[in-house]
């Protein structure tokens, strides 16, 4: 069982396992020492990276997801005896594997958050029939673009960590598929899934746990940032505003994943109103407990909601698929009410932060930057002279590889940029700029 989980599909057969460190600890070291991990500090979570020292970036978000996931994994190991039987490689929860998956889950996100992802996908689909998606780009980075000593490409991660990151176990090129894995990397992932005898469409327990902890962080930490920024105002006028409630209901109804939450079982508007009312009421109680100190109240609210969600995570039977499911659980069954509550809080963060008109103005600027960078690089004869030489060298060494066409290469280069670096290159190309040509990229 360990051999199957610790198998490294990209590593040379002659490589020896470390006798000093666990294989999953080696994965953890490779991930946090990678340039891609460091670049997360310069990529937007909600507010643009560099908006302020307080606000979260992709890096701090990933670390917070990892902290929540590791603690929950340890608890589930203690409270679910069947895990110790290790009956199936996908029905195991190793805290280090879950932590690695959490650290790496946002590696594929481009600069400027979801707007950057949207623009790259639109351009690639429109002009070249290719898709761009952050989760798929994760595997392209981990298995192809990243480099480490002794390896031709990728970080050569273990099978358990690769499948722990794979929360969408599908080939993204399939018709109508919005999320998944690009073809070249999917061949390897599919082979691992076949070796593990994974049920079709099912993720490992470790991937499911990482995914839910990502939702927990999103629905609690991003709201904390929103309150701090004044985008979410903690008063009845804000929380009872009909326009806010209408937007939340519309986000729920327009979500392509709405079927997962059983919204047909409830009056959506009524539930939205109840969750907002309860959230504000809790804030007012904690505000009084914290001597009316807003910063302490924000942190305490965040901590209590993280605890309320994380403490309810457990493993139940997924009878529809003949598999196991990590879920928010109450009385031995999935707690759909709490799941819907978490989704409403996620939508609250989205509507008030991402859909704020000032944020949308910044996103429009981001869209223009990404589009103009693309236009500058996409003609190979001209673009190759304004892309860093090490990138061009890598492209030329691998240009015979069918999954590194020039358009995909340009998308890889742009998507690897931090927000600030994208703005820097844009300014060099399109704005008046002073400074030395000897500045290091």
TrEMBL record:
- Name the species this protein comes from: Paenibacillus plantarum
Per the database record, which ranges form the HD domain?
58-219
The record's listing under InterPro entries reads: dGTPase (IPR006261), dGTPase-like (IPR050135), HD/PDEase_dom (IPR003607), HD_domain (IPR006674), PHydrolase_assoc_dom (IPR026875)
Q: Which Pfam families match?
A: HD (PF01966), HD_assoc (PF13286)
State if Oxidoreductase is listed as a keyword. Answer: no
- On the tree of life, the source organism's domain of life is Bacteria
What keywords were assigned to this record?
Hydrolase
- Kindly provide the name given to this protein in its UniProt entry: DNTP triphosphohydrolase
């Amino acid at each position: 069982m360990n051999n199957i989980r610790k198998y490294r599909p990209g590593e040379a057969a002659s490589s020896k396992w470390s006798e000093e460190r666990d294989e999953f600890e080696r994965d953890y070291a490779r991930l946090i020492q990678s340039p891609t991990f460091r670049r997360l500090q310069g990529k937007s979570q909600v507010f643009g990276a560099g908006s302020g020292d307080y606000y979260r970036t992709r890096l701090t978000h990933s670390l917070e997801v990892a902290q929540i996931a590791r603690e929950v994994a340890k608890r589930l190991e203690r409270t679910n005896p069947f895990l110790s039987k290790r009956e199936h490689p996908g029905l195991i929860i190793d805290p280090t594997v879950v932590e690695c998956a959490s650290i790496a889950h946002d590696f594929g996100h481009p600069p400027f958050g979801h707007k950057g992802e949207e623009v790259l996908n639109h351009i690639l689909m429109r002009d070249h029939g290719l898709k761009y998606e952050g989760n798929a780009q994760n595997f392209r980075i981990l298995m192809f673009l990243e480099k480490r000593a002794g390896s031709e490409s990728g970080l050569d991660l273990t099978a358990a960590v690769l499948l722990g990151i794979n929360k969408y176990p599908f080939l993204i090129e399939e018709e109508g598929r919005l999320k998944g894995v690009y073809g070249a990397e999917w061949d390897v992932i599919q082979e691992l899934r076949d070796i593990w005898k994974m049920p079709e469409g099912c993720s490992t327990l470790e991937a499911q746990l990482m995914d839910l902890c990502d939702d927990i962080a999103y629905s609690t930490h991003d709201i904390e940032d929103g309150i701090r920024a004044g985008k979410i105002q903690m008063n009845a006028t804000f929380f009872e505003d009909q326009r806010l409630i209408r937007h939340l209901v519309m986000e729920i109804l327009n979500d392509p994943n709405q079927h997962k939450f059983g919204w047909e079982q409830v009056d959506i508007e009524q539930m939205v109103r109840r969750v907002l009312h309860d959230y504000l009421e809790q804030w007012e109680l904690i505000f009084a407990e914290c001597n009316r100190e807003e910063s302490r109240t924000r942190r305490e609210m965040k901590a209590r909601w993280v605890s309320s969600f994380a403490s309810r995570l457990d493993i139940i039977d997924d009878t529809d698929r003949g598999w196991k499911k990590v879920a928010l659980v109450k009385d031995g069954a999935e707690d759909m009410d709490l799941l819907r509550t978490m989704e409403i809080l996620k939508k609250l963060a989205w509507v008030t932060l991402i859909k704020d008109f000032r944020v949308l103005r910044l996103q429009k600027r981001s869209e223009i930057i990404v589009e103009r960078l693309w236009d500058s690089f996409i003609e190979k004869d001209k673009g190759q002279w304004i892309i860093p030489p090490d990138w061009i060298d890598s492209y030329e060494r691998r240009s015979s590889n069918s999954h590194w066409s020039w358009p995909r290469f340009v998308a890889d280069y742009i998507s690897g940029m931090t927000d600030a670096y994208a703005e820097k290159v844009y300014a060099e190309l399109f704005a008046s700029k002073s400074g030395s040509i000897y500045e290091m990229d």
